[in-house]
Amino acid sequence: MAHAAQVGLQDATSPIMEELITFHDHALMIIFLICFLVLYALFLTLTTKLTNTNISDAQEMETVWTILPAIILVLIALPSLRILYMTDEVNDPSLTIKSIGHQWYWTYEYTDYGGLIFNSYMLPPLFLEPGDLRLLDVDNRVVLPIEAPIRMMITSQDVLHSWAVPALGLKTDAIPGRLNQTTFTATRPGVYYGQCSEICGANHSFMPIVLELIPLKIFEMGPVFTL
Amino acid sequence: MAAPPEPGEPEERKLLGFLDVENTPCARHSILYGSLGSVVAGFGHFLFTSRIRRSCDVGVGGFILVTLGCWFHCRYNYAKQRIQERIAREEIKKKILYEGTHLDPERKHNGSSSN
């Protein structure tokens, strides 16, 4: 989960998120250098003694400042498109979970191996145990195995919601009447938090998502299905 | 990357307020080499031409080019290293899983070499 006042990305828990962090670092370095150049140009503008206002014809400079941004955009776009297509790969998921957004809770359905359906409500502050996270912990977590491709089918029963888990690099809109799909493979066990990411009413900020990722062996023993 | 800084650890430093050079792999290395390149290029240009403003321009250009060059070189090697680590991790897992079974790659290899 994010720590207080965190601005940067959370640690990656899936290969896609690792790629996203790498791309973020790459783009940020390019942005930093452009900002540096612009600040230098601003400094020169503020300190120049040149006052000739009849300058015209700067063909070379105009060529450079047209072609160079095009090259920079290509350098940013190519890795971005690579990751975009990578996120759309569907590599034979082992498990399919349905996630249905409501005002203001999530319903999860494990229908592959039985008919487990449950709601996931945020724990109200009065019901928090010591160590629980305020506004993040839920009564029923989504328990999933690590190192297995998982497909999430996301929809909504009423208004727009969005199912997001930053540590896994996931954010998929829950749209009424539409079934959206996202797949992921988690690489590390743990508890990962997310929050609804599409404004959906008064309690939009109070319908979190909690994934509990456990080793496959333990998942197969059936802790989920003993609920 | 996402953990809050521990009491003994240095605070995160962000250049221009957003580039975290401490926690971004290769960032500190690239910026330091870029700064060195900038000083060498700018100062060298000044020694040859005695033009201050143009030397500053060369210095800034040198900083950008050297930083970019070091960045791409370092990130390429970092990506290669990560791929090698991932392959090694998978191979170790497979070895532990399949050792002694008919799927053991070493067994297959020894079998084919003895034939």
Automatic annotation (TrEMBL), chain A:
InterPro entries: CcO_II (IPR045187), CcO_II-like_C (IPR002429), CcO_II_C (IPR034210), Copper_CuA (IPR001505), Cupredoxin (IPR008972), Cyt_c_oxidase_su2 (IPR014222), Cyt_c_oxidase_su2_TM_dom (IPR011759), Cyt_c_oxidase_su2_TM_sf (IPR036257). SUPFAM superfamilies: Cupredoxins, Cytochrome c oxidase subunit II-like, transmembrane region. Its cofactor is Cu cation. Residues 92-225 form the Cytochrome oxidase subunit II copper A binding domain. Keywords: Copper, Electron transport, Magnesium, Membrane, Metal-binding, Mitochondrion, Mitochondrion inner membrane, Respiratory chain, Translocase, Transmembrane, Transmembrane helix, Transport. It catalyses: 4 Fe(II)-[cytochrome c] + O2 + 8 H(+)(in) = 4 Fe(III)-[cytochrome c] + 2 H2O + 4 H(+)(out). The chain crosses the membrane at residues 27-46, 66-85. GO terms for biological process: electron transport chain. GO terms for molecular function: copper ion binding; cytochrome-c oxidase activity; oxidoreductase activity. CDD domains: CcO_II_C. One of its GO terms (cellular component) is mitochondrial inner membrane. It is a multi-pass membrane protein. Binds a copper A center. It is found in: Mitochondrion inner membrane. The keyword Disulfide bond does not apply. Residues 1-91 form the Cytochrome oxidase subunit II transmembrane region profile domain. Belongs to the cytochrome c oxidase subunit 2 family. Component of the cytochrome c oxidase, the last enzyme in the mitochondrial electron transport chain which drives oxidative phosphorylation. The respiratory chain contains 3 multisubunit complexes succinate dehydrogenase (complex II, CII), ubiquinol-cytochrome c oxidoreductase (cytochrome b-c1 complex, complex III, CIII) and cytochrome c oxidase (complex IV, CIV), that cooperate to transfer electrons derived from NADH and succinate to molecular oxygen, creating an electrochemical gradient over the inner membrane that drives transmembrane transport and the ATP synthase. This is Cytochrome c oxidase subunit 2. It comes from Homo sapiens (Human). The lineage of its organism: Eukaryota, Metazoa, Chordata, Craniata, Vertebrata. The gene is COX2.
